[in-house]
Amino acid sequence: MATTSAMGPTSKMSAHSHLASPKRTFTSLPTEIHLLIASNLTYPDALSLKHTNQYFYSLVYTGVNLKIEWLIERRRLHLDCPHDKGCELGSDMRFCRGSVRLLMKRRREHGECESRPDGRGCLVFGTKICTYKKEELGWIAVFKKFSWGVIRRVGMFLWWVSLALLGAGVAWFWMEHQRRREILSAGGSGSSFGS
What we know:
mainly alpha; elongated; transmembrane; membrane; transmembrane helix
């Protein structure tokens, strides 16, 4: 019995030792796997990964070839591309100015994805149907959104006008009160002199 009780805690610790081991994360993977993953990313995804930390900044390639591949892919999918000749491919900061920044923002918000089964699908996750795309508003929804915006703006205007009128009303009431006090005090002193 003494031997089984002595072995009990040891066997329990070895049985649960896999629970105490640290979980594997993306950053704990070998560099070769990081390079393999980074080489298969499109320019916006590679740029996002590059700016997560200093390690990936020095590891991930976002050079001219990747930018050109991304622009060609956008053209192939009939998506908007920068049309101006001022699109500089030299550095990420110069490349992401102007229309490229707006294109990447639209991509992040799933603005270029299609929810139709025969459409482009999700360009962010690479699936056939985008479940993250916001539904386009119909005419009634657009009218409601517009009218609520107008009501909100008019409401704020009316709020400030009513606040100003309230202040003017309080000032008028105070001035009338002061005028009546002066009349009563002048009338009261005159009546005391007359008697």
